[in-house]
């Protein structure tokens, strides 16, 4: 391989990181045009964050070497486009907790950096877009969408996106067709859905980017357990963003993104032919206040 060819191959971390940063910026630009700055909140939150870091520097006697290592690392997070990854892995779970603690229905879980809006629409029992030879264990996932009072929500949609059997997401990792393993199911008149896909593999934070560098330097592990991402929408109800997990994954108890909750654990059953799994899970949405 010539040097030029080598340079064409951007590192995996920077490829997915920069795409995640770009997509996030586009979503912000299209949705937040009219928001005004709340000076009091910025003063409070930015002030507290800066103070917390100063306290750590004083209490832990941080050296110039350590300060410069931090500076270099923060610059690299930006260069690798890994701010979405860093924030969603280490902070989003607390934001999600604050946002959904009032709910009587499903509380859900974090969105993460790899959501793309407007995934292809499918009938209530449709098959997710996938490659002809998509590797992985076939999975049938069915259930119903209801309101907290038990009413079936017949106008609901269920979006599903997940990694492939190598742990990679379409539209972020190279070489995977657009919309692969991403779809939007329209429920039937009993508010039921039956989604056909494959089981995702666990996800590893890229080892060649700034987040991977931090993980290695701190002696942490880089894994999220295998998971399904979902967004469940129905008119007059709060949007549910959730993740669901598979029992037995080695990282269900120490997810690097702290996003596993006991009520999000699936109970997959082998299909009759023994080749796939069937899982059932119902979603309960809170009416909008
Ligand atoms: C993921 O796939 C994910 O779901 C989160 C929250 C962070 C990094 C990668
Ligand atoms: Fe994910």
From TrEMBL:
The keyword Oxidoreductase applies. Keywords: Dioxygenase, Iron, Metal-binding, Oxidoreductase. InterPro entries: 1_2-CTD_multi_dom, Catechol_dOase_N, Cchol_dOase_actb, Intradiol_dOase_C, Intradiol_dOase_core, Intradiol_RC_Dioxygenase. Its cofactor is Fe(3+). GO terms for molecular function: catechol 1,2-dioxygenase activity. It comes from the Bacteria. Its EC number is 1.13.11.1. Residues 141-169 form the Intradiol ring-cleavage dioxygenases domain. It is an enzyme of class 1 (oxidoreductase). Belongs to the intradiol ring-cleavage dioxygenase family. This is Catechol 1,2-dioxygenase. It comes from Enteractinococcus fodinae.
